[in-house]
Structures are given as structure tokens and as C-alpha cells.
Amino acid sequence: MSRGATTDPNIESFRVLPASPSGQADTASHFLHTSPEFAMKRLLCAGAGDIYQVCSVFRSGEAGVSHNPEFQMLEWYRLGMTTLQLMGDIEGLLADCISALQVEFPEYSFDHTGFFRIRYYDLLHELTGFSRNSLSTDAIRQFLQERGIDCPLDGSESLDTWLDFLMSLVVMPQLPSRRFTFVYDYPATQASLANIYESADGPVADRFELFFGQTELANGFFELTDGIEQEQRFISDINIRKRQNQASVPYDRHLIEALKSGLPECSGVAIGVDRLHQVFSGRSSLVDVLNFPVGRA
Fold this sequence. Notes:
By secondary structure, the protein is of the alpha+beta class. Helices cover about 30% and strands about 20% of the residues. The protein has one domain (about 35-120, about 175-295): Bira Bifunctional Protein, Domain 2 (BirA Bifunctional Protein, domain 2). Strand 8 (about 200-210) and strand 9 (about 215-220) form a beta hairpin.
């Protein structure tokens, strides 16, 4: 529980009102964490070194085939490790899990050469024909309309919102169903808490996502260490939330103070444990691997 919430417009925090000693509700809201990231980064700033955690996290309004408002997350950070090295870390972990559990995927080889890696813009070009320079809201809307794909957007939204729809409606459904795919070097405007670096094709976010088939399993960053820039990003998120009539939330000022004191260069990743369970057991829905999903909580 924290005084600050996630500012990400794509994620909603559970707000709680602690009772005061008199039995009256405290007027100051608290929030259940959507990820242990902020607290873990404060520990890194305090000199904790390489750390990991498995915990329950909470995201309001998320329920469905691959979502539950409460779920288990494995998160870890490695000092001095690049995102490409962290991908190898994940490959080793998953390969060991598969071997230990004797999971059988006859169509797939789980040695380290079997994990596929591709840059975001390369994947987009391969599956939609869009190049980085040809992307625009009008072009994406026309692309979807020509293929008869319904989209609830009206054209006033940001390019990132349209890219999210393009990824979810066109790109992800085409990912091979029995393959682990790392997608990395996301648009710089989708950096979140990741560092931005200058690639051969221009600025990109030093982050990745891991999919098994069409299911997202992990999200990893080479972490942004600049507290001032991170604070600006939080404020930008809050402004987006305001324009989209979303709930106003306070950002985590303790995290910003910690980052300004110094975060060592590191990479971190969060993996959905329940989704791993779903994949390893071959179940079609997250509900099938949860003891008490939201409908029976």
C-alpha cells in the first residue's frame, strides 16, 4: 500500500481509505500497488543490489481470459545488465522451469536458440507493411477500415493509442501460437519507466515485452535513472489521464526523491506468474489456474 499510485493511463490502481483510530475514514487515500517496481527501486537506490520478489499485485477493472484484478507477479532487477542480457536471463529461467516441470510442447524446442527476438518496428513492418516513417493516426485508421476491423477511436487520440490498437488487433494475433517472442526497442513515446537511447533508426525505448503465442508474459526495462525526467513523465501521464476523464491520482514522490539520490544502472523485469501457470498447463483462461478468481473472491 502506498500514498502514490501508478500514473500509467493504461492501468488503474485500487484506492483504499484507511480508518483513523476514532473509527472515521482517513481523508488521505492510499493505493494498492499494481507492481512492486516503485518500492524495489527505492531499495536499489538504498544500495540493495540485485533483488527479486514474488508478490500479489492489484489492478482495478482488469478481468477476463488473461486478466484478474489480483494476480501474482515475479519481479527482479540486475545491476549492470543490459536488456539483451536480461532476455537471456529470462530464457534460462523459463528453460529450467520447463525442464523441471517436464512441460511438453512437441512443436517447440526450448533450448536458448528457440526464443525469438525482434525489434518493435521490424515486427510492425513485417506484419502490417508500415515503416517507422509511414505511421500516422490517419494511416492506421485507413489500414484498419480497409480490413473491416472495428476500432472505437475517432482520430483525436494519440499515435501511441492507435499503435496499441494496431498491435492488439493485427500484430499480436499473428504471432506464432507456440513460440516465445521478445519484442524490443519500443517507440520512445512508450518508454514509461525505461531509458531512451539513440538507435541506428532514431530514439527508442530500451524496453521489451515477452509473449508466448499471443499472451504477454513479461515487461522489461533498462531503467531510467534520471529522477527529474521520471517526474516529468509522471506529470505527462497525469495530464493524459485528465484529458481522457480518468481518475486523478498522485504520483509516487518517494520514488522521485530516491531516483534523485541515485539509482545504479540496472535492468528489471516483471513476469505474470499466473499467466506462466496458464501457459505451462495449456489452459485457455486465467480463471482455470486461479483458486479464487474475482468472481469467487
